[in-house]
Predict the 3D structure of the following.
Amino acid sequence: MWLVFLIWIVVIFVSTVFISQYIKMQNREDVAIALFVLFITMSQILASKIGDFTVFNYQITAPVAVLIFPFTFQITDMVNENFGQKATHRMIFIAFITQIFMAIFIWFSIEVPAAPFWGFDWASDPIEAQQFWLNFFGSTIRITIASWISFIITENLDAILFAKLKKWTKGKNLWIRNVFSDIPTLALDSVLFISIAFGGEFPLDVILIMIWGQLLTKWFFGVIDTPFMYLSRGVINGKINLLGNLFSKKEDH
């Protein structure tokens, strides 16, 4: 688990620097949107696997997507911080449209019969091969619908809270708007997503365990991303320069 956490830190660090350096040099949010869409898409796919996490000797059961999804809120905050609430809502809408297309493409893949030679040793049976694909991606449709509902509500709510907190604090104390916009919206997302995605599939006590596990994990990763927000600010303000002029526009001669 520590290796996973270490790799997570590296990925978030690189992503934060990459987005921030691009914003600094180009003053545009398109790279942030691209990674936002990527993380949302992977969260939906990985949410179909329920994992057991051990954090400080505490066992947590939650969808594997909790490793990725909290960072989408950081990207939301980064865009909100630098481009405003309107741009953030626009990014969320773009991501939402891409998820609709993803669900359609997954349905295409389920409807097309599997070739008899596709898959593992048992895939000589086309019916069994098709069932494997259905089991793997079929649940993603329901997860996607659950994600649509929780995503469109909580991400937009996060953008609203972040903007209001920024106004109330007069642009000071970045950590306040980062933490206190993420904590309640991540909690709401956990309740909505788990209830819709897995309600009726598992007993109530298992559902509650998954909600609690996802809640704790999201809060953990949601709070730990605060230093990355300050890293982003440092890169954009020019106090930290890790990628040089990689994204700078070439001067015309």
Notes: Residues 2-236 form one domain. Helices lie at 2-26, 30-46, 69-83, 85-111, 126-168, 174-198, 204-224, 226-236. Strands lie at 50-55, 58-63.
